[in-house]
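Record format v2
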Amino acid sequence: MSSELAKLTIAEASKKLAAGEVTSVDLVRACLEEAQAKNSELNAYLEIFADAEEQAKMADAKRAELKARGEEAHPLLGIPLATKDNILIKGKHASASSKMLENYVASYDATVIAKLKEAGAVFVGRTNMDEFALGGSTENSAFGPTKNPYDTSRVAGGTSGGSAAAVAARMALGSLGTDTGGSVRNPASFCGVVGLKPTYGAVSRFGVIAAVSSFDQVGPIAKTVEDAELIFNTIRGKDPHDSTSIDESIYTNVAKNKKIGVPRALLKEGVDKDVLAAFEASLEKLKAAGYEIVDIELLSLPLALATYYITNFAEVSSNLSRFDGVRYGLSVKGDSLLGDYATSRAQGFGAETRRRIMLGTYVLSAGYYDAYYGKAGAARAQLRKEFEDALKDVEAIATPTMPGTAWRVGEKEDPLAAYLADIFTVTANLTGNPAISVPMGNVNTLPVGIQFTAAHGDEATLFRVGKEITGN
Amino acid sequence: MESLQKDISNILDYVGQVSAVEGAEEKEVGLNHNVMRDDVPYDEGSALKAAREDIVKAFPKSERDYNVVRKIIEK
């Protein structure tokens, strides 16, 4: 019975809760049992919260209270969710999977957490990620990589690898990740679940540890598109604590024309042939459902990765400068003040984080600023314009989410090789458009996802098209 | 260190492609731009007002309202 409960989608569990067929305690216990059996191997959770069952009891009590008053419960009341380790929950550790913040305990709730608490969701635990959300496989965590539930010799993707693996392995019914260059969509693709990167500003970033402030967005990971939509609708909205958050009405939606654009030029090389075959089969499915598939050209796309990484390095070096052993984070005494800074940062940050800080400092330095950061700014503006124009003619742009399946742990030692795998996902972060990854089948028993990008503020199209592919 | 130098050099070569872009960064202020918070105390009941005490508690060393931080001025 218990393992069957962990298989439920949020929508199914919510119906059973409303009908009184199960309790939140039942659901949480089912997820905890899965976690006890699998987490030591998968390393999806860094911590399972000791009060998870207590939270579930409170949710059940709240349901009884609402019922007595004849009021309806929020569909997330009593639903066990997992949250990424860079999202603050008051009184809980939030380390961003870094030695730098290993002992940090959050003193307030992130806005997304406050909204989920208001809805009555239960937080099962905090999930593993690439340190400070820098990576694409969760191998850069200071606490070991997260393994893929489909093949434990492979990565779960990243940076929200723990959040995706927890949902795929039924250790939570849904989860929150953050997406800086594909960090929700990439692990969703590798783990066979749904992941949404909302429009930039649609979801508050207050209480989320910053990686790249002009890219970061919190997004849901779930078993179905319907569940992802439910979590998104619960956490979205303008927040006075985040001045980059936006009102729903800020973007006026474009006409729906059931036309999907495919940037064919980008698919010519570097994409696994079986992934391409699965992609073409998904497009056929859309055609059968009455969609028109057209080729589109986005001239700046070949420069998207370079543009993305320059901006990423620059903002990372700036955002992480606060972790200096004096103001924030790990503090190690050196032989002088400079020694304190250097030793704290050398011991607190992992290799990839240090590499990006150095690269960011370089591209922002006076002699190189125009050649790198200035040019990246110009390229980003061009790309955004091209996407805006393309999305006047088509309602969504489709690509595979990732060019291949999950790689073996340790396989991509060269950092540049790992960066190149982000080719399809970084564009939505550069342009601020919403994008979703939904499962499109398996290649050699490993899941692969298809990605759709829509106009700013048009998540509704992503949910509709996503449901055409998955059926729910 | 050698491998770090090689990695960084390869990465800079790759991202250097961006020099092919014509034009410079646009200086216009976009839809989302940085703003400064008004310098006023938090309202009663605000999440941050409630967090104040917890933040003060997180100081490694404090004596009543005196919170000790590392000395950052050297002779």
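Residues 23 and 57 of chain B are 51 Å apart (CA to CA).
Chain B has two helices and two strands.
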